[in-house]
Recover the amino acids of this structure.
């Protein structure tokens, strides 16, 4: 004879009297936990999807991820999906491609579009991202980038010193730490606790947490809700969610002028060899990831502001450029190594000014390998 | 390692499957004990020496009581050892500071060197737990535990090791002697308790801590409204913090098929200080009742002795919480409050005519006043808070309204829980809805920082 199932009421009353359950009724039966679990899973999936419907992205011509949303990888992922949906050629890289000193209509992708007379290129760069972080970005948030043409920028600035290459042992705060490998390979200057690393790994795997990060960055000044209410005690937290994302237009730099006018002196960076460079290794991983997803990749190396380099470092830089080009040739990756722009067209060691981007766009469109890449499907 | 951290999740993911596999075998206790020691050692491996020492002494004391005729000397040995450990590690710095202050005031050109030892987390809890075993055995309330392994597991069981509940040998040892049965309801209950505890800690306590810490860091820069609200917020912060921990501890234990005692029972619904202490940190207040208040005579030796004993227990309880005069004053305020409300409860008019909400408000007010001393960094800071509150200065307290909404929602829930509206709260959609809301809120809006538990410092 089958035992009758214990109804919820009897189950709660079965508690030994010396051990009452608690001082509240938030007590679920196994079946109710199943219901709660299903509801939570559904919300985790549905809420971000629904959010995309109600929060306009407005990724029109010359769009780029707004500077305040540089750490908002959920929005980046969403933008990639839109850009890829329109069959664009994606221009990927760091602040050089993003256009750190220029407006969104003065970037490389803008001038490429202007010169070819169509809105073919999309700026999917992120300001401040270095190769190790870019590898993580593409791997985890750039899954929409598949079966596309990708112009990938190689900025050798990230190999200009052990610090840039993340090989120093002294801890320092670098950009986009949530995108770099958390557990392996170890980055010597990245010394956050295991607790934080696990939190980052979990946070980037769960869609709901990624979306929560988006809310935090886009609407709560980059802080969490509790801190935001401390800073805005009388404000309605729900009222802060305006569904209006920042504009992609302004650059973080107030003025855009040549490096010489800004008083930046020439320097002699201690270049890291490519064969031991962590950042170069991560850059290679990015190419590998993109190709594995069926993307056609074209690499643009530089152009670095060689006018800032003194003596021996200029020779070493030339060597690094050649080594990079040699590796790209060996691995049959179409590429271009444009010559350095005129000195007056650089804002600093690697960022061109608006006129510099226009000139660079023109140089690329005269480069045979680039034209061949664009014409071949 | 704190319960609301990913590191603990990792630890538990390793511990739990093995525990479920071995819980019916002889490996259960070694695995439980090893896990508990790893948990404790994650704070500082040296702490293990202390917990092992306390465990060993008390185990041997009871063996001594059982095998010799000298029960009392063994009991004294146990008590002296345990209080000595507490005295040295917890009160050494306090005693040294006060002694040096006294010497300085007497112009004695000598300073007693500071002990300079780390304060071992959880010592106040496991010492009391272990001591209760020897006292209970002495009184004949509990049988001798023949297995050192089982006894050590009782003392160090990781869900309750750091911050209680201070379960007695009589309730926990029998559970460790049998194979725990982990039913689906146990798992469901464990999850329910853990989620509620996690919400209390991360979404509520850590949130309120930001405002409270800001105000209490420099109380001289705030006016009455901010100080009042910060005190009110602290009352809730410490409740959410400690009861949240206990809920998580009970939830984890429940997942293991072990029942720990209820430690908090909506204390801010208390109608008197006596009622408050039957709802707040229940395991500690019953410990003091059974091992201090009753041996002192309890309420059996006249009114004066009753109040004397109550006041003594309150002050000692204050000292248990921390090695500072502020905690002693906190205990003293509770002593006065307890005496006041006890006297009022014996007045017919108060008992029968004063509405319950008024009694609750009076009790809550006394408790909040006492929290000023508990939270303040020093006695002078505490007096500064009190005097500035009494000056009724006006200034925008900048207290987040959202925090107020959360606190009042919880309070309303508690009122409803102890009223005829409880049946609404026990409806399945309400219970499921609350769990979904709490988990969703934690995921989306939980604090990104990890604050320590307040009671960890005790």
């Amino acid at each position: 004879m089958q035992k009758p199932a214990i109804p919820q009421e009897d189950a709660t009353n079965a508690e030994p009297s010396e051990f009452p359950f608690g001082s509240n009724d938030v007590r679920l039966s196994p079946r109710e936990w199943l219901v709660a679990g299903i509801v939570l899973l559904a919300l985790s999936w549905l809420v971000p999807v629904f959010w995309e419907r109600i929060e306009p992205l407005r990724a029109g011509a010359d769009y780029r991820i707004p500077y305040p949303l540089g750490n908002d990888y959920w929005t980046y992922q969403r933008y990639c999906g839109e850009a890829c949906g329109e069959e664009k050629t994606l221009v990927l890289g760091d602040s050089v491609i993003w256009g750190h000193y220029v407006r969104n209509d003065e970037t490389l992708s803008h001038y490429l579009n202007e010169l070819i007379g169509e809105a073919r290129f999309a700026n999917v760069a992120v300001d401040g991202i270095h190769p190790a972080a870019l590898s993580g970005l593409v791997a985890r948030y750039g899954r929409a980038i598949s079966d596309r043409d990708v112009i990938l920028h190689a900025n050798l600035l990230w190999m200009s010193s052990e610090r840039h290459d993340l090989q120093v042992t002294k801890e320092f705060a670098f950009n986009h730490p949530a995108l770099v490998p958390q557990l392996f390979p170890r980055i010597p200057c990245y010394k956050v606790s295991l607790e934080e690393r696990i939190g980052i790994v979990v946070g980037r795997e769960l869609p709901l947490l990624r979306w929560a990060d988006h809310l935090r960055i886009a609407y709560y000044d980059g802080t969490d809700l509790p801190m935001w209410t401390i800073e805005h005690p009388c404000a309605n937290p729900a009222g802060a969610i305006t569904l209006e994302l920042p504009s992609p237009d302004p650059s973080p730099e107030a003025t855009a002028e040549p490096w010489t006018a800004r008083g930046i002196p020439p320097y002699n960076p201690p270049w890291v060899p490519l064969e031991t460079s962590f950042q170069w290794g991560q850059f290679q991983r990015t190419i590998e990831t993109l190709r594995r997803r069926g993307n056609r990749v074209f690499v643009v190396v530089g152009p670095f502001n060689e006018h800032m380099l003194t003596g021996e470092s200029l020779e070493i830089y030339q060597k690094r450029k050649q080594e990079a080009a040699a590796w790209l040739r060996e691995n049959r990756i179409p590429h271009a190594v444009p010559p350095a722009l005129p000195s007056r067209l650089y804002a600093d060691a690697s960022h061109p000014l608006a006129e510099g981007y226009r000139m660079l766009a023109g140089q690329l469109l005269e480069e045979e390998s680039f034209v061949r890449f664009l014409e071949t499907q | 390692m704190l319960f609301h951290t990913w590191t603990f999740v990792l630890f538990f993911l390793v511990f739990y499957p093995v525990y479920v596999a071995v819980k019916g075998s002889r490996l259960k206790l070694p695995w439980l004990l090893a896990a508990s020691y790893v948990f404790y050692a994650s704070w500082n491996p040296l702490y293990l020496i202390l917990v092992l020492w306390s465990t060993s002494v008390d185990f041997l004391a009871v063996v001594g009581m059982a095998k010799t005729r000298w029960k009392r000397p063994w009991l004294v040995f146990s008590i002296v050892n345990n209080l000595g450990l507490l005295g040295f590690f917890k009160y050494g710095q306090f005693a040294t500071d006060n002694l040096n202050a006294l010497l300085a005031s007497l112009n004695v050109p000598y300073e007693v060197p500071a002990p300079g030892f780390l304060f071992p987390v959880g010592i106040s809890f496991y010492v009391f737990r272990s001591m209760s075993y020897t006292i209970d055995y002495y009184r004949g309330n509990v049988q001798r535990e023949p297995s050192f392994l089982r006894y050590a597991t009782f003392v160090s069981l990781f869900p309750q090791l750091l911050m209680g509940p201070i379960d007695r040998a009589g309730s926990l040892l029998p559970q460790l002697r049998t194979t725990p049965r982990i039913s689906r309801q146990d798992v469901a209950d464990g999850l329910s308790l853990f989620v509620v505890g996690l919400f209390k800690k991360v979404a509520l306590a850590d949130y309120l801590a930001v405002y409270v810490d800001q105000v209490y860091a420099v109380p001289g820069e705030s006016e009455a409204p901010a100080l009042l609200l910060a005190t009110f917020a602290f009352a809730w912060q410490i409740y959410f913090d400690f009861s949240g921990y206990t809920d998580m501890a009970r939830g984890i234990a429940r997942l293991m098929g072990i029942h720990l005692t209820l430690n908090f029972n909506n204390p801010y619904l208390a109608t008197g200080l006596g009622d408050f202490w039957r709802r707040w940190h229940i395991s500690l207040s019953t410990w003091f009742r059974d091992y201090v208040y009753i041996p002192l005579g309890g309420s059996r030796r006249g009114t004066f002795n009753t109040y004397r004993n109550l006041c003594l227990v309150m002050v000692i309880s204050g000292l248990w919480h921390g090695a500072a005069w502020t905690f002693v004053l906190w205990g003293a305020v509770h002593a006065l409050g307890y005496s006041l409300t006890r006297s009022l409860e014996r007045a017919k008019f108060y008992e029968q005519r004063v509405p319950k909400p008024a009694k609750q408000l009076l009790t809550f007010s006394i408790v909040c006043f006492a929290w000023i001393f508990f939270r303040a960094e020093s006695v002078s800071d505490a007096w500064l808070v009190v005097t500035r509150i009494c000056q009724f200065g006006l200034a925008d307290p900048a207290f987040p309204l959202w925090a107020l909404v959360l606190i009042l929602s919880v309070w309303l829930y508690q009122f409803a829980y102890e009223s005829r509206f409880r049946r609404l709260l026990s409806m399945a959609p309400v219970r499921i809805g609350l769990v979904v809301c709490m988990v969703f809120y934690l995921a989306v809006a939980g604090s990104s920082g990890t604050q320590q538990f307040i009671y960890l410092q005790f």
Q: What stands out?
A: Residues 125 and 195 of chain A are 30 Å apart (CA to CA). The mean pLDDT of chain A is 91.
